[in-house]
User: Fold this.
Amino acid sequence: MQIVLKNGDKLELAAGATAMSAAQTVSEGLARAAVAAKINGELCDLSRPLKEGDALEIVTMKDPEGLHVYRHTCAHVLAQALKTIYPTCKLAIGPVIDNGYYYDVDFKTPITMEDFAKVEAEMKKIIKSNLPIERFTLPREEAIALMSKFHENYKVELIRDLPEGEEISFYKQGAFTDLCRGPHLPSTGKIKAFKLVSIAGAYWRGDEKKKMLTRIYGTAFAKKEEMDEYFEMLEEAKKRDHIKLGREMKLFALLGEGKGFPFFLPNGMILKNTLIDYWRQIHKREGYVEVQTPIILTRSLWEHSGHWDHYKENMYTTKIDGEDCAVKPMNCPGGMLVYKLFPHSYKDLPIRMGELGLVHRHEKSGQLHGLMRVRCFTQDDAHIFMTPDQITTEIKGVV
Assistant:
């Protein structure tokens, strides 16, 4: 059969050849560097069989997708190590995130960062064993039976929630099997540098009404030197952390009495007001008018805007004179009401309406972080009302 490579070259292969055998045909060097493949644009394992006319791209660690696959496999190595050391623990999910991965686990006996050394030692054993990683699929009921046999109730729940007809795939490495969409490295021995970095609590499926699980964060790199550089960068970043600087410079405070609601101190208000003065200066220069809309508005408005149906769980609600109301999470509906107060001629347009809008959003406690993720903040917002032929000019003006 014939397949097409990324550069457009055609490659002759035997029927049933895999992406890995295609890489080996191109060169042994490419085969050694390969971590996954893209077949007709779909990221998949190197063991995936090819068909006549397939477009093939071999993915290496130089590609962003390569590092994603690498770290995803490391998350599975972490899970296998945890099941070896703590056989009664139950696995939830283990996705890749920026700069690493995590795995949510339900432990009978809580673990701490002091336990990381023995977990990492077990991970190193698994990597040294160079276990082949094999993908297989099962029908829904057989998949549920397999995870039930392993007492993995979180996996059973995930399988039950999959749409009818969805392919249910698993990955096996040694005696360990995990529910996963993949793709993964061909074997555990491909992992060269990894480290467990922190531990946190996380509600199952992000629902505060469900069980709190233990989230273990880790990272992995193609080379130890790259990992060392990353941790050096983190140490430098800690010295410049805005929470640390905010406390030292007496700019703001984060208190238990108002989680997610920052307190601005005198020094912080000097800085904030200086920024607001600058904001007003440039908005006046660019022809904006300033408005201020109420913090609390009626349910009927939020239903009309769609927020009540699609964003209510992130809104703070109350009753006023027996009527449902909500604290605004966004300024747009209020801005629209201001515009609608009076009739406007096309000669009035564009109307550039700026607002320093105080908004409140119910962020989950585990997502709060300094001033970066809060429950209350002032949004530099604006609404520009214009004719279609003014759109290009107005976008340029904003930029």
